[in-house]
Structures are given as C-alpha cells and as structure tokens.
C-alpha cells in the first residue's frame, strides 16, 4: 500500500490543522493506521493510531484531548485533526499502516510496514 500525507503548514500556537493521508494499492480496511512525528534532533515518536475497525483510537499522552485520528473507508484516507497546537507539536508528521498490528503494540513504529512521506507542521508563537 502507498501512503501520501498532506496538510502540514505554518500555524500559530493555539490554532488547528488537519493532516490527511491517502492510501492506495491495498485493501485499506485491512490495515491499522497511525501517525508518528519527528522533530529535529529527536527520535520519531508515536502520536495516534486507529485499529482496522476504526473503533479503538490510541493517543500519546502529549496529544490526548487535543488531537483526533479518524479514517474514511470510502476515501481510503486517514485524518489527524490537531487542535490547540503548541510549539512542541512542531515536527515532520508521518502516516503509517500495518496489517499485523496488535493492540498492545499499536504505538510501536516497527509494527507498521508502510510509511508515507513526512508533512511538516510548524507552530509559531
């Protein structure tokens, strides 16, 4: 499956952005999906994930309550709605998909075999 992320940009602190990740080349509903991010000089970190059924979202503690992950099975697209953005949310954001993701490991990057290119989010003061 191929993933194409978009929607990044420059936003002021407290603002909102919605990232999109379009999937093609596979049966989208067979994949768990996730967003990770990587800031300069830092390791890639988990942001949010959604099971194949879309029923069980998971979030990192740093974004819970501010970000929402969702998926559209018709459009084969995953979204990350980001509200109340903070300076520390600035990073390259990557979408990922995996067929064999178990719930207890949904935040592990090695569970995802397919990755999109990054989309840059910059939050300014």
Walk me through this protein's architecture.
The protein is mostly beta strands and 125 residues long. Helices cover 0% and strands 49% of the residues. It contains no helices and eleven strands. The protein has strands at residues 2-6, 9-12, 17-24, 32-38, 45-50, 57-59, 67-72, 77-82, 91-98, 114-115, 119-124. The strands form two sheets. Strands 2, 4, 5, 6, 9, 10 and 11 form a seven-stranded mixed beta sheet that branches. Strands 1-3-8-7 form a four-stranded antiparallel beta sheet, with no helix packed on it. The N and C termini lie far apart (37 Å). The relative contact order is 0.32. The model has no long low-confidence stretch (mean pLDDT 95).
Give a brief description.
This protein has 125 residues and is mostly beta strands.
Provide key terms for this protein.
mainly beta; 0% helix; 125 residues; four-stranded antiparallel sheet
